[in-house]
Amino acid sequence: MWEKVxxxxxxxxxxxxxxxxxxxxxxxxxxxxxxxxxxxxxxxQAHAVAKENFKSLELSEVSQLLKSEIHExxxxxxxxxxxxxxxxxxxNLKKEIVNFYLDHIPYINNWDLVDCSTxxxxxxxxxxxxxxxxxxxxxxxxxxxSERIAVIAMLHFANEKSFDFPxxxxxxxxxxxxxxxxxxxxxxxxxxxxxGGNELVEKFLLKHISNIPRTTLRYAIxxxxxxxxxxxxxxx
Length: 236
What we know:
Blueprint lengths: L1 H9 L4 H10 L18 H11 L5 H8 L4 H17 L3 H13 L7 H5 L2 H10 L5 H7 L4 H9 L1 H6 L4 H10 L5 H16 L3 H11 L5 H7 L5 H10 L1
Helix pairs in contact: 1-4, 3-5, 4-5, 9-10, 10-13, 12-13, 13-14, 13-15
């Protein structure tokens, strides 16, 4: 069955868009997406194929797709996984998908693959878990995509107005050297601010204003009123 999905995706190849995507996702030697291969599909195209097929695929078949060298095939596989997770009520079945996701992190190896999946699977599952050690382990792993998985999962926490653990993770990773993590931290701070944690975020920013990465600050204050945004930039 997974071959059918693969073939459906292949029929949507767009060589011109593929070239554009290789530049956008930094696939040159030494860049974070080095060696990744693109077919040039749009996200809606991949989602449509995933939606058509997710009910009929076993996890073993999703694994075959997720191990593909083609970026959009991996994207579709993660979309399938998200759709499967959202349909589940049983906690044990949800745990099976979470464990599957964690076991396949080596293939979740670009920012869009992380962003399309972790806050729909890892976020919801661990919001309900008292033991957050797996998330802490991801954040402390020194592996870029594991770190981003941990932080972007916090978007779900923010959406549910659970702010303490996201703030803890962001502080742990605040001075990360990679721009993708600095953006992730700022994105989550912005969402916390928007969901009612404005005082918490503003106090955090003032605490770290002298050395917070500028990228993180700019993302965090993006929705601030203009006068307040200028104030924080001036403090920096």
